[in-house]
Amino acid sequence: MEYEIITKSENLDSLKEDWERIEKTSISYTYFSTFKYCSTWVKNINYSEIELFIIKILHNNKVIGIAPLQITKRKKNLVSRKVLEFINVGDYADFLIDYNSKIKHIKIIKRIFEIIQDNGNKWEELYLTNICNTSLLSYYLLSSKYNKYYKVLVEAPYIDFTNYSSLEEYRKYYLPKKVKQYINRLNREKNIKLVITRDNVINSISKIHKKEKEFLSKKGIKNRYSLFDIPERYHFLDKLYTENENILTYLLINEAEDEIICYYTGYIYNDRFHSYNTAYNPKYEGYSVGKIFNYLIFEINDKEKLWNVFDMGAGRYEWKFEWTNSNNLLYKLNIENFKNRRKKIVQKTIKIISYIFRIAKEKY
Fold first, then answer.
1. What was the pLDDT predicted at 311?
2. pTM, two decimal places
3. Please, what's the b/e burial string for 287-307 (b: 16 or more CB within 10 A of its CB; e: otherwise)?
4. Cβ–Cβ under 8 Å, residues 84 and 90
5. What pLDDT does 355 receive?
6. Exposed (0-12), middle (13-18) or buried (19+): which is 321, by Cβ within 10 Å?
7. Which residues 6+ apart lie within 8 Å of 176 measured at CB?
8. What is the pLDDT at residue 219?
9. Please, what is the end-to-end C-alpha distance for the chain in angstroms?
10. Is beta strand 309-311 parallel, antiparallel or unpaired with respect to 259-269?
């Protein structure tokens, strides 16, 4: 199997046709691995200190595998290092393997790692995160020499409604206490409406997310941040949400005051709704709007059937497990390139010593 490595963002579009062909060969791929998602990210992020490292595997001049990677400069213990990582920022990440290829799929993944090792002079740390336990990549890592470097990172809870004969059956098992009372109270006191949209609502929901962050900070929760505070991330999402049929946002609206009470936004792909981001208006904190919102979303989807799986995304939060006992395990692969690290540390130490001697010589 031959290979090429794409290092320039302007060459990314040359992969579009093959990437989109391969992403359709397996339902295990998520929206975060699609060309649309990854290319939008690359084209809207500053790559002045980031180098693309997209590995393209070919057999008989046909692309049969893609590893969407990049090399990023990061600092650790005051020393910068080149980290080889996935290019996408999302709940799931994966290598794309052509499942229609006659070449054994595991061999394609093995070839990718051979290439990564052969190019070890270009990176000092391999750090691949958010690899789902059900993926072929995960299977390979668990059954290979990389096993000892492969560790559980976090859970991603989900609800598969095909496991239940009806929404009522699901509710017998998972329905937080007093949800119906909360809904009745909110209906009595506010004129609420559930809105489903595929429009670009980034400007509107970003304001709610920032309000929630500020509110929680005042309550002493200091580790909260808003992804919308990062200009590049905002710009990326704004581009991604423009004329995109995979986008889906649920808005709970107070019609009387024409304002958003809370929202869920994400992507539909392979019959799964990936809940990418959610927040609530602090003005409605006492109404348990999160529990109400989930209940209303599941209820309306039972009628409209836009998806069968509700993926709550990465993160172990109590409120997620009120609704389900199912979750994907997300793993991380972390390998230090000690040969390169030692070489770099020695070089840096020599520079520091040389600088000290030069200053001492000038002084005396």
1. 98
2. 0.89
3. bbbbbbbbbbbbeebeeeeeb
4. no
5. 61
6. middle
7. 291, 322, 323
8. 83
9. 62
10. unpaired
Please tell me the distance from the alpha carbon of residue 305 to that of residue 205, in angstroms, as a whole number. Answer: 24
124 class by beta-carbon count within 10 Å (0-12 exposed, 13-18 middle, 19+ buried) = buried
**175-323 has the same fold as 2-155+329-356:** yes
62-88 pLDDT tens trace: 999 999 999 999 887 767 899 999 998
- The sheet carrying 96-97 orders its strands as 2-6, 54-59, 62-67, 96-97
- Write down the domain spans for the chain: 2-155+329-356, 175-323
Q: Which two tokens stand for residue 311?
A: 């993926």
The correct CATH number of 175-323 out of 1.10.3720.10, 1.10.357.30, 3.40.630.30, 3.40.50.720 is 3.40.630.30
Q: Which CATH class is domain 2-155+329-356?
A: alpha beta
Q: Give pLDDT, residue 303.
A: 95
pLDDT confidence of residue 49: 74
Q: Which of 203, 299, 297, 197 is nearest to 247 (CA)?
A: 197
Q: Which residues of the chain have pLDDT under 70?
A: 78, 222, 339-355, 357-364
